[in-house]
Amino acid sequence: MSKKVICILLLAVIGLAFVTEGPAVLPQLKISANHRYFLTGNEKPFFWLGDTGWLLFAKLNRSEAEKYLETRKQQGYNVIQVMVIHDIKEVNAYGDSALVASNIAKPKVTEGSNPANATEYDYWDHVDYIVDLAAKKGIYMALVPVWGSVVKSKNHDVPADKAKVYADFLAKRYRDRSNIIWMNGGDIAGSDSTKVWNTIGATLRESNPDKLITYHPRGRTQSSTWFHNEQWLDFNTFQSGHRTYAQDTSKKDLKYGEDNWKYVNVDYNKTPIKPTLDAEPSYEKIPWGLHNVKLPRWTAADVRRYGYWSVFAGGCGYTYGNNDVMQMHKPTDKNSAYGSKQYWYQSINDPGAKQMVYIKKLMLSRSYFDRVPDQSLIAGKQGTRYNYLLATRGKSYAFIYTYNGKNFSVNTTSLPGTKIKSSWFNPRTGVTTAGITQAKAKTLAFNPPGEPKNGNDWVLVLDAI
């Protein structure tokens, strides 16, 4: 056989391997047996640590998407929440339109998928590329099919019949991608265009029976208000929102202010039992209440507080957000939203973004599926607002979170054994102090490290011996 023929055969084999290489396959996410948490297809616990990369598909090119996803991977994130269509006239970084003539029932799909040829690489090929890139990095994609502002009843851009065609297109296109989670809705009340949301949810469920589906509601509301009993909804999310205690004066919504743990309490007590999580708390570096850019901005301490409060209350995970990253603010933008001053590639390394992994590591450091919220661990007053203490426990351990490091006492009767080992976990660094073992008593007093002040947050870790 000539060298020329051998070379041709080798090139053919290499080419065949390249062509037939499919998307990376991640374990399919499922609901745990007790219906409180997630697990992977291989029965391992899955703690949802998400990031709101809402405009990823529309704003970033392939190299930028690589930088963003790799950074989040290294930081421990395993879910990215992203809009598939944010605007009825959606166009991506390459100038490709998502739809034909702004018709949601007509995705603009071209034949072929050749990145080197602009006429053979369209908006949906770009979405495919990023979804597959995320899978290779072990990241799941929580896709919002179409943002609520596009569907909003007064716009009439997405009637139920067209929504069904569009949802069917999505379900069939991404049927074989195991890293897809469907996040119906998009910052909108379920009472607005309810028929559309139920149509999208039911269509996705019919064609993607193995994929998890939820609903992303508007600020200070939760999906369970409208869709808890719908068969297409596997788990609940809520958007605790960006308002301070003083700003939460809505007459329509429950006035929880910054107490995002209260949303978890509502969902936790509903039947049938379904997992729940805060899918959009206050973003790091976004102004209090969003719109007045002269007001103070939420900090890393705030996003930590939202995380530990909601998870210890019984949440199955937590989604972090950053003002600059969620909108993928770039130097080429003519303006920015909510007073964003830095670019996404700078803010992906903000303190809060890097600290989120510590909560995931803590929750996975002990037995997972037996964990329950348990405020009976708090001896005496539980506190209010920033003084509020949150407690959760498994069969042989307990965690108690304090946001400001004030002294508190613990009732240990719910823990087994005759001795208690106590240590302090630092949410800012992920470091745990050396443990102290003492005889178990009905009530034990604890003094967190440092001087009491907001942001001097700690988790008391108790292990029964």
TrEMBL record:
<dbReference type="InterPro" id="IPR017853">
    <property type="entry name" value="GH"/>
</dbReference>
<feature type="domain" description="Putative collagen-binding">
    <location>
        <begin position="372"/>
        <end position="463"/>
    </location>
</feature>
<dbReference type="InterPro" id="IPR025277">
    <property type="entry name" value="Apiosidase-like_cat_dom"/>
</dbReference>
<dbReference type="InterPro" id="IPR024749">
    <property type="entry name" value="Collagen-bd_put"/>
</dbReference>
<dbReference type="Pfam" id="PF13204">
    <property type="entry name" value="Apiosidase"/>
</dbReference>
<feature type="domain" description="Apiosidase-like catalytic">
    <location>
        <begin position="32"/>
        <end position="369"/>
    </location>
</feature>
<protein>
    <recommendedName>
        <fullName>DUF4038 domain-containing protein</fullName>
    </recommendedName>
</protein>
<dbReference type="Pfam" id="PF12904">
    <property type="entry name" value="Collagen_bind_2"/>
</dbReference>
